[in-house]
Design a protein that fits this description.
Helix 1 links the parallel strand 1 and strand 2. The chain has 5 helices and 5 strands. The chain has a 5-stranded parallel β-sheet with strand order 3-2-1-4-5. The model has no long low-confidence stretch (mean pLDDT about 95). The protein is an alpha/beta fold. Bound molecules: [cytidine-5'-phosphate] glycerylphosphoric acid ester. [cytidine-5'-phosphate] glycerylphosphoric acid ester binds next to strand 1, helix 1 and strand 4. The site of [cytidine-5'-phosphate] glycerylphosphoric acid ester has 18 residues, from strand 1, helix 1 and strand 4.
Length: about 130
């Protein structure tokens, strides 16, 4: 079984998230999503609208996702890859090159982001429309 892992906050789920999850799953047979906890989001200077528990439930309902684990700190990726016997690490190319150190442990793939959509854009558009 070829195992894939990806990381993120996945707040206010949108097609950019679904596209990366779909493509990540196509790289193997089993997709693990390491989901940023609310505490780790603060470290990333992000504040998610949905709680970790809600974002986890939403991700677990997606057909491409097989398992959701918590992402609590930057340095856990190597151990995650080893512990979960991961073959492929996948993330959007906004992170291009940032995780090349994982190439010693698994394949590292940066995928093109989906243009025109982001959680930040959703929040800003909603603010503009006073919604
Ligand atoms: N993404 C995408 N296209 C978009 C928006 C997001 O492909 N329009 C991808 C990102 O590149 C990332 C994933 O969707 O691979 C999740 O995005 P975020 O929730 O913003 O994740 P991020 O804050 O980048 O967290 O340790 C790694 C970090 O936890 C990554």
């Amino acid at each position: 079984m070829k195992k894939v892992i990806t990381y993120g906050t996945f707040d206010l789920l949108h097609v950019g998230h679904i596209n990366i999850l779909k493509r990540a799953k196509e790289m193997g047979d089993y997709l693990i999503v390491a989901l940023s906890t609310d505490e780790f989001n603060a470290v990333k200077h992000k504040s998610a609208y949905h709680s970790y528990e809600d974002r986890k439930m939403i991700l677990e309902s997606i057909k491409y996702v097989d398992e959701v684990i918590p992402e609590t700190h930057w340095e856990q990726k190597k151990q995650d890859v080893i512990d979960h016997k991961v073959d492929v690490f996948v993330i959007g190319n906004d992170w291009e090159g940032e995780f090349d150190f994982l190439k010693e442990y698994c394949e590292v793939i940066y995928l093109p982001r989906t243009d025109g959509i982001s959680t930040t854009k959703i929040k800003s558009d909603l603010n503009k429309k006073n919604l």
